[in-house]
Amino acid sequence: LFPQVLLLACAEDLECIPGFQQKVFYIEQPFEFTEDQPVLNLVFDDCKGNNKLNFEVSNPDFKVEHDGSLVAVKNVSEAGRVLFVHARSEHAEDMAEILIVGANEKHGALKEIFKIEGNLGIPRQKRAILATPILIPENQRPPFPRSVGKVISSEGTEGAKFRLSGKGVDQDPKGIFRINEISGEVSVTRALDREAIANYELEVEVTDLSGKIIDGPVRLDVSVIDQNDNRPMFKEGPYVGHVMEGSPTGTTVMRMTAFDADDASTDNALLRYNILKQTPTKPSPNMFYIDPEKGDIVTVVSPVLLDRETMETPKYELVIEAKDMGGLDVGLTGTATATILIDDKNDHPPEFTKKEFQATVKEGVTGVIVNLTVGDRDDPATGAWRAVYTIINGNPGQSFEIHTNPQTNEGMLSVVKPLDYEISAFHTLLIKVENEDPLIPDIAYGPSSTATVQITVEDVNEGPVFHPNPMTVTKQENIPIGSVVLTVNATDPDTLQHQTIRYSVYKDPAGWLEINPTNGTVSTTAVLDRESPYVQNNVYTALFLAIDSGNPPATGTGTLHITLEDVNDNVPSLYPTLAKVCDDAKDLRVVVLGASDKDLHPNTDPFKFELSKQSGPEKMWRITKLNNTHAQVILLQNLKKANYNIPISVTDSGKPPLTNNTELKLQVCSCKKSRMDCSASDALHISVTLILLSLVSLLCKLFP
């Protein structure tokens, strides 16, 4: 006998709809499914004759005969919770779902599997309304509306009407369900999507003709049965994994995880993973394996094959497939690409391309003289490839340095201190190369990681060198012309060439010096003046050349600093030289005079200020010393408006002292209303001294 079958799909369509005519079945599992004993009949119609119709069952212990009978191929005591049957013809394909519950779970099966509250077929309340839970497969085909269930009222009140409410009826999304108010038949108006809404909780009431509630409300649960209508999706890409070369077999590289929007409690969302393609396929077409359940990608080749330096490329791309339905052929699939990079480790030491390098450099020159080349099979983007060079022998004077070219990895050997051919014409350096990163254990630097550099120094005609340089000497200013300042000394570094040296003046800003071209004696050609603008801080600087007899000749430059000692050769000067005073001034202190001297102490202050002798019955002014450098001129009485010349002498403290006789011009002006008028004072009031000088001159002309 057939086990009890509960039909949960809608009523038969009025027109042919391609596919299974019933998509969802509910059966009780017997003690055992008997071999070749029909379980139920499946009806598939592609509406065009079912040409080349084939069936596939998710459980290999079952099959579907050509007449649609589902039978066991052997005695089966445990078939699981669900079976899926996939049908395909020349014109259509579809899938049916068979839900299996044990006999002792009959009344609680729907609640457990579909999470429906209440017991199937048992009223929830002792009321006249019987609202049995409704199960509806998602993605049903038109036409709509479809009848999906019926509500029964045991009290046949005349004129009573059924009324349905809740989400999906009069609440958003509105209009999905409706009820025949007379018969109580519930229908769905369009296809449902379980992934959008899996359950609807409706309420049914019975009203009279006036709309008054007679019975209810009673809860009506509608559950949407999942269909396998969502493909697995990889949402977390890009997927990039790294594995170190030489890693042991079974090393986990990365995890790939897909998402399926179908019901996670069914095989519709039960995913299995598989590698569809590996690029490249060498050294093995199966370098990696993916755990079908977890999605972990691991290495499956030996560490020897996982050698980055022998691979075509250190990057592998795997096309990963995720299939639902537990990986069965009827499952939907989604794919993603996993990129796996083989990371380098320092398992190859750098090696010089040859054991000996040659270099030639001219003496006295600095800079790069040779590039040392190395080979390294490790990844150029890592410290396992980048080279570090060290001079381990032949560089006691630290004349050489070596640095790594970051682009080429070559060692740039440089001269940092000029070499001297006369000291050494040849140099031999021993250089080693290592990596920035340490080598892995069991790998060591060998003989090829050291090299010799032979350096030849070429002789160059070097310019003579002054000793010392700069040269310093101290002389008094004003020494006689032709005096010897000093004799310079220059030598030729090219001791093996036996060259002669000639001297010449290079820079002599004041033109005071000359040099003997043969022996280097420097003499004066003019008076040395410490107060000259060419002298800075008492030092006069001149440059001389020493020229050898080479071809072409080489030149050396020497600097001479002459420190000039001061001599009292400058008379003091007086300032100011003009003063003005009002003819009716009450303050007769006319002016404060200051003195300065170009010489140095002790040939300057203290200065001595004096008035020349005044003649006449009355003295008109006097001078008073204020300090070592200043004195004050004071009138002894008011003077008439005129110009006066006051004779003053100022003497420095040198040995011997020098005196400057000068005159202070004094203008006596009229002052009215805070204005000084000196226009009428142009007439010179001749001093007594000038009158006497004029008389003497006149007498000399009369009596020659």
Automatic annotation (TrEMBL):
Where's it mainly located?
membrane
Keywords from the named record: Calcium, Cell adhesion, Cell membrane, Cleavage on pair of basic residues, Cytoplasm, Glycoprotein, GPI-anchor, Lipoprotein, Membrane, Metal-binding, Repeat, Signal
For the keyword Metal-binding, the answer is yes
The record's InterPro entries line, in alphabetical order, gives:
Cadherin, Cadherin-like_dom, Cadherin-like_sf, Cadherin_CS, Cadherin_pro_dom
SUPFAM superfamilies per the record? Cadherin-like
Q: Which locations, inside or outside the cell, does it occupy?
A: Cell membrane; Cytoplasm
Bilayer topology: Lipid-anchor; GPI-anchor
Keyword field contains Calcium: yes
The GO terms this record gives for MF are: beta-catenin binding; cadherin binding; calcium ion binding
Q: Which BP terms from GO are recorded?
A: adherens junction organization; calcium-dependent cell-cell adhesion via plasma membrane cell adhesion molecules; cell migration; cell morphogenesis; cell-cell adhesion mediated by cadherin; cell-cell junction assembly; homophilic cell adhesion via plasma membrane adhesion molecules
> Start and end of every Cadherin domain?
161-234, 235-352, 353-466, 467-574, 573-684
Offer one Pfam family short name for this entry: Cadherin
Write out the GO cellular component annotations: adherens junction; catenin complex; cell surface; cytoplasm; side of membrane
Assembly description: By contrast to classical cadherins, homodimerization in trans is not mediated by cadherin EC1 domain strand-swapping, but instead through a homophilic adhesive interface which joins two elongated EC1-EC2 domains through a region near their Ca2+-binding sites to form a tetrahedral, X-like shape.
* Chain's role: Cadherins are calcium-dependent cell adhesion proteins. They preferentially interact with themselves in a homophilic manner in connecting cells; cadherins may thus contribute to the sorting of heterogeneous cell types. May act as a negative regulator of neural cell growth.
Q: What name is this protein filed under?
A: Cadherin-13
Origin species, per record, is Penelope pileata
- Report the gene name: Cdh13
